[in-house]
Amino acid sequence: MGTYIVTGGASGIGLAIGQQLRSEGHRVLTLDIREADIIADLSTAGGRAAAASEIRSRCADGIAGLVACAGLGAHIQDRKAITAVNYFGSVELIEALRDTLAQHRATVLLISSNSAPMPTDPAYVEALLCGDEDYASALAEDMESHQVYCGSKQAVTLWMRRNTPSYAAQGIRLNAIGPGYTRTPLSAAVENDSQYGEAIKHFIESIPIGRPGLPRDIAEAASFLLSEKSAFICGAMLFVDGGHDAMLRPDKF
Fold first, then answer.
1. Domains assigned to the chain
2. What sign results for the dihedral spanned by CA atoms 81, 154, 111, 92?
3. What pLDDT, on a 0 to 100 scale, did the predictor assign at position 75?
4. How many CA atoms within 13 Å lie on the side-chain side of 93?
5. Phi, psi for 130 (deg, rounded to 5)
6. Which residues are registered as beta bridge partners of 27?
7. pTM of the model
8. Could you tell me the CA-to-CA distances from 120 to 115, 140, 154 in Å, in that order?
9. Cα separation of 45 and 24, whole Å?
10. C-alpha angle with apex 169: 106 to 127, nearest 5 degrees?
11. pLDDT at position 186 over 70
12. Catalytic positions, please?
């Protein structure tokens, strides 16, 4: 049994992952902007640094794993906030904790999206991967919110893939999950959005398995990737989306 940190753990997928880990006997510390064990604002550099400091002080006995789940959906009109939370709120926190994660040979799981392969601005993705938050935010202002969302998740996944070898050499396994449409408070807001609602309805109807995802679907996959049962899985992007990615990109894997 170990201690796991779950960002975005106050609701939706993050809440479900925390509940799943607790049901297995683990200690879970949730991190969120409110109603969490650790209150932190991952949209700012100062908030990320404060979060890393608090995690270290609360986990002196070690960290078994970190789940970077905090994120904002495409319905959010503040494109700078999507950029800040979805990419930098995950990557900068992981990097700030790298020494601690290595010391305890922890597992890191990033919550990406099956939207990650969708079209976006390559310059935006590259700005994220270069760590240039100001430039990425400036580019985001002239993009559609959905493109910003897709780009942030694409960059998170590419960051995971690019950094897998060096992290693995330190004993840290990096993996990502790409949820498909999952019924959460965040997705409910999109489903009821005047701009995206009708498209989301058709999107749900097209899921090959015949239903939208539930938070527990993602939580059970997360539990596996965080456990010793997946000890040789490293650098993987696991789509948990009812077959949607296979339907949309049948010749790519």
1. 3-181+214-241 (3.40.50.720)
2. negative
3. 81
4. 36
5. -85, -5
6. 3
7. 0.93
8. 10, 10, 9
9. 33
10. 85
11. no
12. 149
